[in-house]
Amino acid sequence: MEYQENQNPFVSIYVPVALVALALSMLFFSQINGAAAATESMKWQSANADKQTVALKEGKEKLAKAIEERKPLVATSESLQKTFTDMMKEVNDLAVKGDEDAKKLIVGYGIKISDNPAAAEKK
């Protein structure tokens, strides 16, 4: 009995158990807060993904519309390019046959006519 009277009442098995319980409660609290934050983050990401999906669809529609609007311009450009290429070939033919003005154009502007029409089409 004498041993029990000298023992400090604050130093017992209950203090470490209380500290462990406090640590566990703090751990559980932080885990619950983390789960709530993760849920909010996932909601935000989902909303953001929905906005991006809508923007992507709108962008695709605008692109398709722009392509359709520019088809006549592309056709005109291709026609003009073909006409210009044919004209330059004719000027080159004249230069080869000895026309001085055609030679001045070809040499003066550094125009090079490809002998291979397939190579010209690739460019």
Attribute tags:
mainly alpha
Strand content: under 5%
pLDDT averaged residue by residue = 84
Number of helices: 4
Helix content: over 70%
Give a brief rundown of this model.
The chain has helices at 2-6, 14-97, 100-108, 117-122. The protein is an all-alpha fold.
Question: Care to describe what's here?
Answer:
- The chain has 123 residues and is mainly alpha-helical.
- The chain has four helices and no strands.
Question: Which secondary structure elements does this structure contain, and how are they paired or packed?
Answer:
Blueprint: H1 2-6, H2 14-97, H3 100-108, H4 117-122
Helix pairs in contact: 2-3
